[in-house]
Amino acid sequence: xxxxxxxxxxxxxxxxxxxxxxxxxxxxxxxxxxxxxxxxxxxxxxxxxxxxxxxxxxxxxxxxxxxxxxxxxxxxxxxxxxxxxxxxxxxxxxxxxxxxxxxxxxxxxxxxxxxxxxxxxxxxxxxxxxxxxxxxxxxxxxxxxxxxxxxxxxxxxxxxxxxxxxxxxxxxxxxxxxxxxxxxxxxxxxxxxxxxxxxxxxxxxxxxxxxxxxxxxxxxxxxxxxxxxxxxxxxxxxxxxxxxxxxxxxxxxxxxxxxxxxxxxxxxxxxxxxxxxxxxxxxxxxxxxxxxxxxxxxxxxxxxxxxxxxxxx
Amino acid sequence: xxxxxxxxxxxxxxxxxxxxxxxxxxxxxxxxxxxxxxxxxxxxxxxxxxxxxxxxxxxxxxxxxxxxxxxxxxxxxxxxxxxxxxxxxxxxxxxxxxxxxxxxxxxxxxxxxxxxxxxxxxxxxxxxxxxxxxxxxxxxxxxxxxxxxxxxxxxxxxxxxxxxxxxxxxxxxxxxxxxxxxxxxxxxxxxxxxxxxxxxxxxxxxxxxxxxxxxxxxxxxxxxxxxxxxxxxxxxxxxxxxxxxxxxxxxxxxxxxxxxxxxxxxxxxxxxxxxxxxxxxxxxxxxxxxxxxxxxxxxxxxxxxxxxx
Lengths: 313, 309
What we know:
Chain A is built from 14 helices and no strands. By secondary structure, chain A is mainly alpha-helical.
């Protein structure tokens, strides 16, 4: 107490130290992903779309859980374009097969194409976008021009050409390649723009200053901080790929009819639109609901990850 | 401005050669020998085969063939369809129909998309806005052939308001329903884009200034908010052109409209590879030109693009 006459010590709560002290170390850590997760959990759209996505995945993995009727055997022409009866809730196709069972068994085809295309577009997009954005200069010039070339051909038209060329080798891998090979540039563009924004951040400069290698900076610091928009675009591209597969099948350049897929069912039902609309409407409904749930999920993630969108609400 | 145009034109050159090369390469990689295929089950006559190869330049190296093909494109020669008719001739006769369909679709897209998007953006979070968002999500996930079939079934067959398919001359009034179908997919994107853009612009300082000057809200919305919000929408229309072409192929196929799209649709359905490729090439070139023009228009609209960099 002798010192109090010589030195004035300000009360603790007036100093900036108070702010430091008030940080509760044991409180839950917060970052972009945690914030986003908390935001998503509060939205009904997240639960609805999440439920449908899980259901669709289960149907694709275990079709036997959902129907006991075989999709291809047991087709009687007596039932051709028949109305629903007990045990066959959605009626029959032109070949007399059960519409419901074919939808259930076609799920895995549509979903596999969607997943393979998404992996392909995300992989190529991240590769091209990350290197173009981070290393810049001549590499950016080359990669971006390559991207421009692939971007300039609408991917459905490109897939039509590829599928026409490979008319005798059509399978799930080929159709996924045909869609994915021309769908990646939009992912690359989005990531490149985001990396250009992130790479001048202070934490990147700090890593450079302490001698972290360029590649390691890209992998450890820049990429994780710029990946958010890619996640959003990936969810949307899954929906787009499922629709693209159906469109190609509808045009007759999709999977061979030996594959059960929603697109094939829709394509085969189109001539019976007048007599048996149910054979066309139900597979279309399955396709639309699946696409809608992925698009809704993308929307939820986008709103959760984008601080600007969050602030605007 | 001149520098920008020049740079943009120079950028378009490698893209033009790249895309045509890519398409040509895919066809070149097509398995099977087309000349041998022409002989069918008969034995191959070597002399005739050699003559055919020389006539179609198939005896030349790949890269020479490509340049011969490119040379043809510059002279307006896009090859010959499966039935022997020049592709350029088919294009001339079918293009006006597609143009009519596209005009209806684009008009609907712009008017509905921008109006609904503007109202949505101005009334953010209200009932109109949230229901628009839900409807636009549903529209985006509906494949265009599903919309086309349902429209044909309900409006064309069940209600009988219009003919389910379009007649040979494709008059304007019969193209309204296909035009609506074609517009549905992109209209959702335009609504969302306009809405985002309007919300963004509405928070700008110049809008607050306009309000504090005492301008009427009608004038602020028209002059200050709408005009500044339309730039991203204009760029979108160019990208959207690709979607529109694929959509036209499907829509014209379903409604039997005698346009460019149906020609491509039928060629695809019948598996006429070379015709498909010629038409896809034409569409890609049109797409490139439209994108180039939009970029130039964009520069005219927004001085920041012109003078930037």
